[in-house]
Write a structure and sequence with these properties.
about 325 residues; alpha/beta; Rossmann fold; UDP-galactose 4-epimerase, domain 1; 2 domains; 7-stranded parallel sheet; 3-stranded mixed sheet; about 40% helix; globular; binds nicotinamide-adenine-dinucleotide; binds 2'deoxy-thymidine-5'-diphospho-alpha-D-glucose
Amino acid sequence: MKLLVTGGAGFIGSNFVSYVLANTDDEVVVLDKLTYAGRRENLAAHEGDPRFSFIHGAIEDRETVDRAIAGCDAIVNFAAESHVDRSIDEPDAFIQTDIFGTQVLLEASRAVDLPRYLQISTDEVYGSIDEGTFTEESPIDPSSPYSASKAGGDLLVQAYHRTYGTPALITRASNNYGPFHYPEKLIPLCILNAFAGDKLPVYGDGMQVRNWLYVEDHCSGIYTALTRGEVGEVYNIGGPDECPNIDVVKRIVELTGCDESLIEFVTDRPGHDVRYSLSSEKIRGLGWQAQTSFDEGLERTVQWYRDNEAWWSPIRSGDYLEYYKRQYGHALNT
Ligand code: NAD
Ligand code: DAU
């Protein structure tokens, strides 16, 4: 297959490109706007590979999408504004990319009768669950502008499938972590702050629970759904472990050897979902299984950040420092 991977310069997208090039004979075309979260460096290992090419552009730009889609067998759409806290401050870009951009991709797919379209979505569209687990039949009940815009994208995908017969399907994953994770998210932020002796900010009481999934396991789940999933269906891809945020941060303290007194409880996120939990039974029926426990994945992730200062040190400057000050009310030690 020749895959159009939109948002392929971001965290999960770039890991997916590496997964595909390493494990299959497929070709990959990446289309990415290179926002603050998208980085060509994430794809550096593939520059020069004849099976890889890169187009700089936005998914909401129909002309660029038409050029990128030519000769492709499938779209895997990772492109999104992805950070909940930023969506609370500035929701506009989320609507533009996550909803409108999805519609442009679906229209472009329809125009060329693209054989397959996979929308990368999130467990956050289901909202929060105190007990039990979400299945693919659970109602959509998003809490933040981010999750509402992702839910909007999902509904468009379902509507295109029902109305036009677009051969589209959706995966909804739980919280990812691993290499190339932008340090606005809890795990990489705390790892890098621990290295620098900066505070480790925990929202509220830190008892919110996330269902952590190592990014490589997510990538194998996506490829499983793409190649073995049924169009019109949704597939949840959940991590093997659930863990309260405070325990995640304490584990990072242990692994980095920093002082536990760096942990700082800060004002909670508005509309903060208390718990996510996903049933992955349906995708397991296609032969997928998460391979990496949270303990093992977190150890590997901390080691990756230790070994890749050249990747993260330019990020902890400029715009990121301004974002940090806005979000946390104080500066980082740099
Ligand atoms: P990310 O923010 O690291 O990457 C997003 C990528 O999309 C970046 O490369 C960015 O430049 C690109 N992009 C943004 N707007 C664009 C536009 N208009 N046109 C083209 N490219 C654009 O995000 P991520 O964490 O890698 O998430 C990827 C996808 O997976 C998203 O759709 C997200 O909703 C979903 N998801 C993420 C997680 C997670 O834990 N990170 C879990 C489940 C689902
Ligand atoms: O569940 C899947 C989602 O996971 C994806 O759809 C999103 O794109 C991705 O960003 C992620 O969303 P979260 O909001 O769960 O991830 P984040 O890393 O921002 O936060 C994880 C938890 O940690 C959450 O309960 C909020 C908390 N947190 C986060 C930050 C950044 C803190 O306590 N302190 C922080 O500084």
